[in-house]
Design goal:
- By secondary structure, the chain is of the alpha/beta class.
- Helices cover about 40% and strands about 15% of the residues.
- The strands form 5 sheets. It has a 7-stranded mixed β-sheet, with helices on both faces. It has a two-stranded antiparallel sheet with strand order 1-2. Strands 4-5 form a two-stranded antiparallel ribbon.
- The radius of gyration is 28 Å and the shape is elongated.
- The protein starts with 12 loop residues before the first helix and ends in a 16-residue tail after the last helix.
Length: about 425
């Protein structure tokens, strides 16, 4: 998985370039449709006894069929394809509404104003087409060819921490070396608070977790939680609540009040295990702004992608919860076979498969907190309910991601993280990165 992004003056590109590209493709398809429309219209006038009005109706009808094929398979080929019948019905309805606008203009000009000559009727039809085209563009892109929001486009790579006055100096000093993330401006009510779930016992990661919680397991000599805090700080998160339970004192001793990460850290310590959902609900009560959205991170992931892009997607989708998704990577080598399905041409080691998994990074809206269980896992109850309500969205992340569940994961991450994420200064190290 690679990082990508925009910088400098190009950082604003993603806001207007997709719209320009869409309008160009829409216009291209529409232009062909108009040519077909006029050709059928004029041929109908020459070869049939139909009135001008009905010739215009026939021309528009033929163009509508061609336009649907062009929009579906060219302009909006990447849009949601799951509800084709609904899409086609809406396309026809809005096209008919456009037809009424277009031919209503023609009718008014020819019948009411007496514009019967070929030049006058074509001019009236052109005016109607312009009005109808504007109507169709707005309706097609909004209600017909709907954005595929369950799986958003891969994000651009990350952005340095920003505040109202510019980049956060304290956060800028945290990372040294490695891949620096490119600047992406935060907008649409930037999210500046986060919650880290770090209360699990993580028995599968022993002996690492004999004396510390999973979030304090060292990768390259630096705890997992340090990479998370540095990443959050780079993206303008200034307030973090860490949900702790097992061996939580180790995190408090290491992270302190958060000043060396350029942020404020507070702690929500469970007196007894509440599960991930219960712990999340309990910790959410310790957030500084209970009525604002917040990022949530599982305490066992190291990742690099654009939190500003995730925040923007969450705001625009209207989701109650947005789940970051990472490509599923096979743990085994996959054989490449020739056409007969028997001869092996080679092997691909740990390929990415066409599936997406929960990356353990979320955006929660305040309305979702009340739906969390007091005890148990939010993925068992809350997420299925949100999915049924159409309020759970997925965001395909772009950038490095690694979940750490086992000792082998830690060993592999120790090789990957310095190159993919970058290192932290020696002052952030704890113990040598070796078990025992």
């Amino acid at each position: 998985m690679h990082e990508s992004g925009t910088g400098g003056a190009g950082a604003e590109g993603p806001r207007w370039r997709p719209l320009v590209s869409e309008a160009f493709k829409f216009g291209l398809v529409g232009g062909v449709g108009i040519a077909v429309n006029f050709a059928v219209f004029d041929l109908s006038r020459l070869l049939t006894p139909l009135s001008v009005f009905w010739c215009g109706f026939v021309g528009t009808g033929v163009a509508i069929v061609g336009n649907y094929l062009g929009f579906r398979y060219f302009t909006y080929r990447d849009r949601d394809k799951r509800r084709r019948l609904r899409e086609f019905v809406l396309f026809v309805l809005f096209s008919l509404a456009g037809l009424v606008i277009e031919n209503g203009t023609l009718y008014a000009a020819t019948v009411r104003l007496g514009w019967e000559s070929p030049l006058q009727s074509n001019l009236a039809k052109a005016v109607g087409i312009v009005a109808a085209t504007c109507f169709r563009f707005l309706t097609y892109r909004t209600w017909v060819f709907r954005p595929n929001r369950r799986l958003a486009a891969p994000a651009e790579a990350g952005a340095p921490a920003t505040t109202a006055s510019g980049p956060c100096p304290a956060a800028a000093r945290v990372l040294s070396g490695g891949h620096q993330e490119r600047r992406t401006p935060m907008s649409e009510a930037p999210i500046d608070q986060a919650l880290i779930l770090a209360g699990g016992r993580a028995t599968r990661m022993r002996p690492y977790t004999d004396d510390v919680p999973k979030a304090m397991v060292p990768v390259g000599g630096v705890p997992i939680v340090a990479y998370q805090l540095a990443w959050l700080a780079r993206h303008g998160v200034t307030r973090v609540t860490i949900s702790g339970g097992y061996k939580h004192e180790a995190i408090r001793r290491y992270a302190g009040d958060g000043s060396r990460f350029g942020m404020e850290i507070r702690y929500a310590v469970e007196s007894e295990p509440l599960g991930r959902g219960g712990g999340l609900k309990f910790a959410a009560g310790h957030l500084p702004a209970a009525d604002a959205p917040f990022f949530v991170l599982n305490g066992d992931v190291i990742t690099v992608f654009s939190l500003p892009e995730l925040s923007r997607f969450h705001h625009r989708s209207g989701a109650a919860v947005t789940v970051a998704l990472s490509p599923y990577r096979s743990e085994w080598g996959v054989a490449e076979l020739d056409e007969d399905g028997h001869r092996i041409r080679g092997f691909v080691q740990s390929p990415e498969l066409p599936y997406w998994i929960n990356a353990g990074v979320y955006v929660f809206g305040p309305e979702a907190v009340g739906m969390l269980p007091d005890r148990g896992d939010h993925e068992d109850h809350t997420f299925p309910q949100l999915a049924r309500d159409g309020k759970l969205f997925g965001y395909r992340l772009g950038g490095y991601w690694r979940g750490l569940d086992t000792v082998n994961d830690v060993l592999q991450a120790a090789e990957e993280v310095p190159k993919a994420v970058g290192g932290l200064p020696p002052a952030f190290r704890t113990v040598p990165d070796a078990p025992g």
